[in-house]
Amino acid sequence: MRAVVWHGVGDIRVDQVADPKIRDPKDAIVRLTRSAICGTDLHMVRGTMTGMVPGTILGHEGVGIVQEVGSQVRNYKAGDRVLIPSTIACGYCSYCRAGYNAQCDNANPNGKNAGTAFFGGPKTTGPIDGLQAEYARIPFAASTLVAIPEEVSDEQAIPVSDIFPTGYFGAEEAEVRPGDTVAVFGCGPVGLFAIASAGLLGARRIFAIDHIPDRLDVARSLGAEAINFDQDHPVAVLKDLTGGVGPDRVIDVVGVDALSPKSGPAAKESKQMADEFKRESKEISPKKKPDGDNWVPGDAPSQVLLWAVESVAKAGTISLVGVYPETMKTYPLGMSMMKNLTVKGGNCNHLKYAAKLLEMVRAGVIRPERILTKHEPLTEVLDAYRHFDKREAGWIKVELRPAA
Fold first, then answer.
1. Considering only CA atoms, which of 119, 117, 129, 12 is closest in space to residue 61?
2. For the CA atoms of the chain, what is the radius of gyration?
3. Helix, coil or strand: residue 120
4. In a 3-state reduction of DSSP, which class is residue 131?
């Protein structure tokens, strides 16, 4: 079959690889009908998430048709249409039963203390081959897969495999309540769903911070007040528009590949941090392999963390769902302590939300397919990666379709 394979930092290819096989009675084989490119995939290509094993198939967002099931998979059969959430979970350990399936005791082959197991990730997460392929092996299929309602299309379902649940998780971890004022840093796919989710949870005002015009336009269409950090200082504007108080909740959906402002009042301040940002970058991603404008790590890893802590109201809550690898060591702890802040986040427990969000989609409460701005065949995925990596206009979210 064809698959997108990681060979090294800055080196991904569409290869012919062996079809996956049932290895365990809890496995299933799924034929992918849709997959997608996620910003997390870009961390691995840029080198800001280390520990990738050459030969690993990328991708952790998928929709497909069950082809074969192991003897212990009793709730699915060949022909069933399913959603494949990003994280893998056994369904029976204490963490899964409590809804913390991202911390499943059994899914990660590195052991109980290894943390999240997800498709297409580095060695610490498995590694388990991902979903940017024609077929995929699904471990613990009975609990990992989610049935898709007949009324929900593939295009509507694919965001529920990762970006919609992660955005909802981010808003929930931020403890968004009716009437709250919320700031969302980052208007990529997850950020846009965090905005939508904050609205679903009752936020009265939502601020969206980014510097890419078309993403800010989509944020406005979701009811957010847009702030371009290349034009305005986001902390100053958030304070000014909230009477000096700041937002009650802040959601960081940017993570380690944050970019510093290149113009406007925030740029001078950021330049003063340049040496510190360079130190962080070297610590986080010692190996880089840029190719022109592609695969360039963000130049300000802790920028959004600083803005989040500076802007949020005293006794407020910060939710971190942007990816920060284990090599990231910087956090403004003293300022956070002096403001009595609550900081939460981590990897999304996708299975906790998937069925609920699919029902929202089925009922027409939300239209997640509007975030899908590009539809590309699997054979053209490398070009799609390049456009998406450069944050080009119109490339907010890329859906991949296996070629005929």
1. 119
2. 20
3. coil
4. coil
- The closest alpha carbon to 260, from 277, 237, 279, belongs to 277
Task: Clarify whether residues 238 and 260 are in a common domain.
Answer: yes
Degrees (nearest 5) of the Cα angle 36, 280, 50?
40
- Quick one: pLDDT at residue 403? 63
Same domain, 153 and 23: yes
Cis peptide before 127, with omega less than 30 degrees from 0? yes
CA-wise closest residue to 173 among 93, 89, 253, 92: 253
d(CA 336, CA 315): 9
**Phi/psi zone of residue 308: left (φ > 0), alpha (ψ -120 to 50 degrees), beta?**
alpha
Between helices 189-200 and 163-173, what is the axis angle to 10°?
A: 50
Burial class (CB within 10 angstroms; exposed 0-12, middle 13-18, buried 19+) of 23: exposed
CA 60, CA 37: separation in Å to the nearest integer?
8
Q: Which of 299, 319, 345 is the last residue of a domain?
A: 345
Q: Domain total for the chain?
A: 2
DSSP calls for 367-393: -GGGG--EEEEGGGHHHHHHHHHTT-T
For strands 205-210 and 181-185, give the pairing.
Answer: parallel
Q: Range of 119's domain? A: 2-161+348-401
- Are 297 and 191 found together in one domain? yes
Angstrom CA distances, 181 to 33, 188, 194, 251, stand at 39, 20, 13, 11
Mean pLDDT value across residues 240-250: 98
Question: pLDDT band for position 392 (50/70/90)?
Answer: very high
* pLDDT tens per residue across span 105-163: 999 999 999 999 999 999 999 999 999 999 999 999 999 999 999 999 999 999 999 99
pLDDT band per the 50, 70, 90 thresholds, residue 402 = confident
